[in-house]
From TrEMBL:
Residues 105-194 form the GHMP kinase N-terminal domain. This is Galactokinase. It comes from Promicromonospora aerolata. Keywords: ATP-binding, Carbohydrate metabolism, Galactose metabolism, Kinase, Nucleotide-binding, Transferase. Residues 21-70 form the Galactokinase N-terminal domain.
Amino acid sequence: MTEPQWLEAWTAEDGARRVDELFTRSFDGSPEGVWSAPGRVNLIGEHTDYNAGLCLPTALPHRTFIALRPREDDQVRLVSAQAEGVWEARLSDIAPGAVQGWGAYVAGVAWALAEAGHKVGGFDAAVDSCVPFGAGLSSSAALEAAAAVALDAVAGLGLAASDAGRAELVEASRRAENEIAGAPTGGLDQSASLRCREGHALLLDFRPGLKPLESGVPVPFDLATADLTLLVVDTKAEHSHVSGEYGARRAACEQAAQLLGLGSLREIAPTLGGIGIDRALTELEPHDPDGVLRRRVRHVVSEIDRTARFADLVREGRAADVGPFMLASHASLRDDYEVSCRELDLVVDSAMAAGALGARMTGGGFGGSAIALVRLSDVDTVAQAVAGAFADAGLTAPAFLLAPPSAPAA
């Protein structure tokens, strides 16, 4: 029998101690404070954020911690337990294409806040994290969100005190990732890390122009009372949002919308009574000899509809009934969006064979993680089945974590 490898979340006290000690070893003196932000898992709604669609994430109990102290100048000095050396830059030198490395995710947030008109100065910071890296669980967004709430606090901006303010921090974090780090993500990850609530999923609506209360609606998601839990499987098949494949999917969606004369593919979504999927696919056919654009569109439109239906079931207290939507989502991501891989498919197949109620890949794809909705009594059985399937296939052993909906950045 193959024993699963479990990844435990740090306690708040342990995480704070780690970064406080790292800061003190690295810089002269103590930090002004410690802040943290969670990774996220997306229940459903994949590759829909940049198509003005719907997503339904929850925050992980696994968090990135940052100890930070402001400076009198515009120098930024960063250290991480996951990287060697000190990352350094001046805020005045931060610009798109101007900096490289992991520090761009942190310094980019300061740049974006300054671009939005907020007064932000230089700082020293130390970072440590128990969010699995390269697992599709938004370790980069957790880093950005932790930096955002830390800078908000030391600069006295007050944005983290309200959901509307947190939406501004989401935008700063998204700009940091898109424009400074160079990853074309759509805002789902940062929204989840900054705006989720403990015990809830967050139904995100990415149509432009919505107010914060319209764009992010908490949905109670208390699995424990239904004797259920969410099992996350890090396949160890690493992925990267900076890679060309992610950008190619986004470009295809933008091309399809342009050909259809639409602002976004959301306008086709059946839940909004748009132009209709059949008409859209017919209009695309002359421009799409290999069928790629139509497959991408079909995924986005159907995924938005699945997300709305999934959220309705959760609101009704019927979390045990969402499994078919998870499976349909995975099939669509595998076949129409073509972002799955052998490891992700194996998690879904082996988890379902062992009794999971539903399973799907989560995150951008091309590796990363998958999730399974399981009964509490079946956690060990499902985890052992997945671990055994990987061993039988000669694949790197996956890692497992439980994902109760957790608290946002603070």
